[in-house]
Amino acid sequence: MNHLEEQLTAELTARGAAIVAFGDITALPPDARGGLPVGVCVAVKYPKEVIRGISCLPTAEYHDWYNRLNERLDALVTYGAELLRGKGYEAIAQTRKCVGSGTTENNTVLPHKTVATRAGIGWIGKCALLVTAQYGSMIRLSSILTDAPLDCAEPVDESKCGGCGACVSTCPADAVSGELWRVGVEREVFFDAVKCRKTARERATLGFGGSVTICGKCIEVCPYTRRHLNDDGQ
Fold first, then answer.
1. Verdict on whether the full-model pTM lies above 0.85
2. I need a surface site. Which of 26, 110, 111, 167 has the fewest CB within 10 A?
3. Which pLDDT value is given to residue 84?
4. In the predicted model, what is the mean pLDDT of residues 157-167?
5. Domain residues for 183?
6. Do 143 and 77 meet the contact criterion of CB atoms below 8 Å apart?
7. Domain count across the chain
8. pLDDT of residue 104
9. Is residue 22 packed enough to be buried (19+ CB in 10 Å), middle (13-18) or exposed (0-12)?
10. Which residues are paired to 41 by β-bridges?
11. Could you give the C-alpha distances from 181 to 68, 168, 228, in angstroms and in order?
């Protein structure tokens, strides 16, 4: 890790990032990445008690943390991009204002999950969430695009979910087909986002009377998430 990577990682971690990683994104279309070669993945994680609390239905606390973590991510990537630009590099913070809120069924031009797989922190699960070995899916993501000389990790090109069917069997919307992700496979092959959003909205109403699209069941049941919930650390 060079000095710039150390500084950026330390600065973002001190401000609340759980993961900071760097990926080569040159294989992606230039217009999707602003012509820039490197993606910085930034992740923050939910408190354990919040995820334990959604085993039956989504909660107001979960929704509050969803929004709180999104705001934290916007601040983190904005700060990181400013730091890189201050050192003379081009950098684009992929904030919600930049890429959208993710509240429609449309695909994002460059999903944060794609940057995360290029940065080697995890893979796309059967439920279309990023899965990490460390935290499972109990994280939220953002990213920075840059031309800074950052050493990139080995990308993840295939799912590591194997024969696990936890999210397949428990998805309230029956939106998960069970097919495995790999680079080049369209999301619709393994996940129905329209079904997911419809049912998530219904469950949010049942859970806390919220007129929002939020569920989280697939996060809570993921074995990697469960393993983190059961360990002794934070």
1. yes
2. 26
3. 98
4. 97
5. 3-230
6. yes
7. 1
8. 46
9. buried
10. 21, 143
11. 29, 13, 23
